[in-house]
Specification:
The protein is mostly helical and 212 residues long. Helices cover 77% and strands 0% of the residues. The protein has one domain. The longest helix has 28 residues. The radius of gyration is 17 Å and the shape is globular.
Length: 212
């Protein structure tokens, strides 16, 4: 039987992907230089919503699958960080706000709502899933390699390689950090985000083990 919580989570992340695809301006128009190399997958938002949609779909269809436990810390950490990072670093960024106003004027009137559908309910859904559904606890090495490996790979490929190929950082906040802290600025943010992902993953592991 499909868990209503898993179904709700899968539907929530499907809605986020729908909002990105149909309510937001295409990245080839909105940010052609920033997204030239990797397209929509440049965005942590899109990757997080894809990861979580796939994870919760798996949990709907095969709740006893070994990957449900092993991948939960990654799903939990990425979804939690998506909401927090967006509203703390990107939503209020002046450069982003100016860009949003421009696209709203061009007819993308659902863009403000799309911003919230893409980012706003990821954390509540992650908490609902983590607190309501039992699962096998991932190992500490799973958290290290999966959460840490994903964070390092995203920074190396989408951020650093993307900057080299595109000539621009994928997110405006990275420009601000580079101006404020020099070349080390983006690396400091990446180190902090990867550390937070690991801590969230370990906390999720402890929660699963305690509930077992």
């Amino acid at each position: 039987m499909i868990s209503p919580v898993s179904a709700l989570c899968a539907a929530g992340f499907a809605a986020a992907l729908y909002a990105h695809r149909f309510w937001m301006p295409p990245c080839v128009l909105k940010e052609p230089e920033r997204c030239r190399a990797f397209g929509r997958l440049s965005y942590f938002t899109v990757q997080t919503n894809l990861i979580n949609f796939a994870y919760h779909t798996l949990r709907c269809l095969a709740p006893k699958h070994p990957l449900v436990g092993r991948l939960h810390p990654l799903a939990f950490a990425t979804a939690s960080m998506l909401t927090v990072l967006y509203y703390s670093l990107d939503h209020w960024n002046a450069q982003k706000a100016a860009g949003d106003r421009k696209w709203i004027a061009k007819g993308y009137t659902r863009l403000p709502l799309g911003n919230h559908v893409e980012h706003g309910h990821a954390l509540p859904l992650a908490l609902l899933d983590a607190l309501c559904l039992p699962r096998a606890a991932a190992s500490a090495s799973d958290v290290l390699w999966i959460n840490g490996g994903y964070g390092a790979a995203y920074f190396a490929v989408m951020v650093l390689l993307g900057k080299r190929l595109n000539g621009e950082w994928i997110y405006p906040v990275l420009d601000d950090l580079e101006k404020g802290f020099g070349p080390a600025g983006p690396y400091l943010l990446a180190a902090a985000i990867i550390a937070i992902s690991l801590l969230l993953g370990l906390a999720d592991r402890s929660l699963a083990a305690g509930a077992a």
